[in-house]
Design the sequence.
């Protein structure tokens, strides 16, 4: 069995350290890192660790627990997120599921149960306690029904997917889109695949045609492919920023 690469997200360092030590003894689990929920470098640390699964204590997230889970799902599309929490509210479980959490584990669970859930999450299998599962499934079913009732084909897309599609309509390459959205090209590739699947088309060109026929238009300042685009650091098409006289900044 290939070990599940695990990243622990919890504000309590003692708990993270103790859990990492205990899980290091469990078969099929490799703890590759950990960080606090509000660590400014959380995404960077997680990206450098390349985990398959992350446990997250959403009780430390503040006002909107779904925001962090959504960011993780957006930045790491192939990451399985397991909520490991001492919170018991079913409405929070619903928020977590809608934001992409594949599993929910109470902190009073046994280590054996946690390990079992981690192994399942590594295989893409979800696990929610029976006390929450009914409401979670109802909420997800209602979301699907509402999405089907919408009239436009683009309404099935998430906000980020619409941004990627709009950039495709503008004629931007995948690398340009990645720079402008400050994500990796792999993330853009994953969003593009989801766009094609949701629109029921087989190519990016077909997706652009659907977008245009649905009313999406190129931006006023859109340029043909090959022209410069501003990246996250202010450079154009990856070229270094220069001063007015053409010199590189010191």
Sequence:
């Amino acid at each position: 069995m290939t070990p599940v690469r695990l990243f622990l997200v919890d504000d309590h360092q003692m708990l993270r350290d103790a859990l990492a030590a205990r899980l290091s003894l469990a078969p099929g689990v490799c703890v590759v890192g950990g960080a606090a929920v509000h660590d400014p470098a959380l995404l960077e640390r997680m990206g450098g660790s390349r985990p398959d699964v992350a446990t997250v204590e959403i009780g430390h997230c503040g006002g909107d627990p779904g925001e962090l889970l959504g960011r993780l799902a957006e930045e790491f599309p192939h990451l399985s997120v397991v909520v490991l929490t001492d919170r018991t509210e079913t409405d929070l479980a619903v928020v977590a599921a809608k934001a992409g959490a594949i599993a929910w584990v109470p902190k009073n669970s046994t280590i054996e149960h946690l390990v079992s859930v981690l192994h399942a999450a590594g295989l893409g299998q979800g696990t929610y306690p029976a006390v929450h599962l009914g409401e979670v499934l109802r909420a997800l079913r209602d979301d699907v029904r509402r999405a089907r009732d919408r009239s436009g084909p683009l309404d099935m897309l998430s906000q980020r997917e619409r941004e990627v599609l709009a950039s495709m309509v503008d004629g931007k390459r995948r690398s340009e889109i990645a720079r402008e959205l400050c994500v990796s090209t792999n993330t853009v590739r994953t969003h593009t695949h989801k766009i094609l699947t949701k629109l029921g088309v087989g190519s990016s060109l077909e997706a652009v045609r659907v977008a245009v026929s649905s009313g999406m238009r190129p931006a006023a300042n859109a340029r043909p492919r090959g022209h410069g685009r501003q990246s996250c650091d202010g450079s154009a098409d990856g070229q270094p920023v220069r001063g007015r006289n053409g010199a590189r900044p010191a």
